[in-house]
Amino acid sequence: YLGARGSMNSPGEEISWIAWFCTLKGNEFFCEVEESYIQDKFNLTGLMETIGPLYRQALDMILDFEHEDEVAEELSEDIENAAETLYGLIHARFVLSNRGLQLMLEKYLAGDFGACPRVLCDGHQMLPIGLTDVPGKSTVKLYCPCCREVYAPRSSRHQHVDGACFGTTFPHMLYAVHAESFAPQQLVHFTPRIYGFKLHASAFEEMRRRRQQEIANERALRSGKQHA
């Protein structure tokens, strides 16, 4: 089960599959799931049905279990893909555990997920989130706890990461458990002005309605002249 992992290491240097996976470009949002969590069968309930017939081989790859029998070359890539999918689904559960929340909090405080692009959020740090808990439906997005909006990651290397690896609950659970670690959420709204005067919330719609009426009147006037 070495594959590309073996070529990344120096002679004699050993690295776990989990550590290797988390160092791949595009996987910076992931934390390292502890092997003790993966070895607890209760935490893996229902995942065998999701992964399919390569579940056991994928799990063994994640846990670095050696096999005496060589894996058929044509199956190696399928097993690797199954392992990455399985790890993502396990990760989505792990980050909701106490230990997982702590590891992701450390990444959040270190700024590993990036800052909100909204100017008035003033660089508030974001958190990875999935728009659905169903694998294969949507890629990972970033949630800002300040403006409570969701954004696409800036880097293209994150656009292949499945949002289900983080799920819809994680950012809100992190805040619920570690609210003291988040900066006060003082949402500042932009106020549109003309010559320094604030515009009423309905101003744009009223201006649009008036302009549409002016256009309609102009067309009616032109039409009347043509038939005169």
Short note summarizing the structure:
This protein is mainly alpha-helical. 43% of the residues lie in helices and 5% in strands. It is elongated.
Oligomer: single chain
The termini sit apart by 86 Å
Identify the strand order in the major beta sheet.
1-2-3
Give the strand content: 5-15%
Calculate the mean pLDDT score and round it: 89
* Residues in helix, %: 40-55%
**Which outline best applies?**
elongated
Helix count equals: 9
Helices and strands, with pairings:
Layout: H1 4-8, H2 17-23, H3 35-39, H4 47-51, H5 55-62, H6 73-94, H7 98-109, E1 127-129, E2 141-143, E3 150-151, H8 170-177, E4 193-194, E5 197-198, H9 203-227
Antiparallel strand pairs: 1-2, 2-3, 4-5
Can you offer a commentary on this structure?
The chain has helices at residues 4-8, 17-23, 35-39, 47-51, 55-62, 73-94, 98-109, 170-177, 203-227, and strands spanning 127-129, 141-143, 150-151, 193-194, 197-198. It is mainly alpha-helical and 228 residues long. The chain has a three-stranded antiparallel β-sheet, with no helix packed on it. Strands 4-5 form a two-stranded antiparallel ribbon. A hairpin with a 2-residue loop joins strand 4 and strand 5 (197-198). Helix 5 packs across helix 6 (73-94) and helix 7 (98-109) crosses helix 8. It starts with a helix and ends with a helix. The model has no long low-confidence stretch (mean pLDDT 89).
Features:
3-stranded antiparallel sheet, 228 residues, mainly alpha, single chain, elongated
